[in-house]
Amino acid sequence: MKTLLATLALPLALLAAPLAHADTLDALKSALSGTTSLQGRFTQTVSQHKGKPQQSAGDFAIQRPGKFRWAYATPYEQLIVGDGSEVWLYDPDLRQATVKSMGNALESSPAALLAGDNALEKNYLIKPLASKNGVDWFEAKPRQEDAGFSNIRLGLKNGQVVEMELVDRFEQLTRIRFDGVKRNARLDASLFRFTPPKDVDVVRE
């Protein structure tokens, strides 16, 4: 799969800028418990120590619990679909689809912030960060050592997540900006189902 499949992650819209750790956690729990779906657009930039940053853009949809769709439109098409029990990664250029169980790994990844349960304290160490350019930031560090990302930062403005930064174990930085986010809209169930087209190689992990 191409390197643009850098993350399965999307944050949930949060309700208020945190003033202290307890306030931050309460706001996160409140937002998660009150959010059933999210839908919108994203722009993603992946930066490495060497080489030109890779930029991509597309649409996303989330239906809690456990269902999500992360669709790249540019510079080429790719699709990630979580149906509640399995995750499909589809690359139409390669004519290949990879499928694997969500399993316990999802609960210790950033994807838990979008489609998992509300057990944030179990999976993350959370603390508020300094505000920058009108955006309030907080940090969520996975407690599990083998999580895909070593550091997650969410940026809030006017009570909604507008940016996300993720650092992986190789210090690769992924920045995501969100736009046109709709919260708790009715979403078509077909968004979270994937059937491989004919003549596509399916790899199970």
TrEMBL record:
Q: Does the keyword Nucleotide-binding apply?
A: no
Task: Please list which residues make up the signal peptide.
Answer: 1-22
Pfam families (UniProt xref): LolA
Gene3D superfamilies reported in the protein's UniProt record: Lipoprotein localisation LolA/LolB/LppX (2.50.20.10)
- Assigned keywords, A-Z: Chaperone, Lipoprotein, Periplasm, Protein transport, Signal, Transport
- Compartment(s): Periplasm
What InterPro entries does this protein's entry cite? LolA/LolB/LppX, OM_lipoprot_carrier_LolA-like, OM_lipoprot_carrier_LolA_Pbac
User: Mainly localized where?
Assistant: periplasm
- Say which domain of life the source belongs to: Bacteria
The text of the family note is: Belongs to the LolA family.
What PANTHER family does the record tag this protein with?
OUTER-MEMBRANE LIPOPROTEIN CARRIER PROTEIN
Quote the subunit structure annotation. Answer: Monomer.
Which purpose does this protein serve, as stated in its record?
A: Participates in the translocation of lipoproteins from the inner membrane to the outer membrane. Only forms a complex with a lipoprotein if the residue after the N-terminal Cys is not an aspartate (The Asp acts as a targeting signal to indicate that the lipoprotein should stay in the inner membrane).
Name this protein carries in UniProt:
Outer-membrane lipoprotein carrier protein
Q: What is the lineage of its organism?
A: Bacteria, Pseudomonadati, Pseudomonadota, Betaproteobacteria, Neisseriales
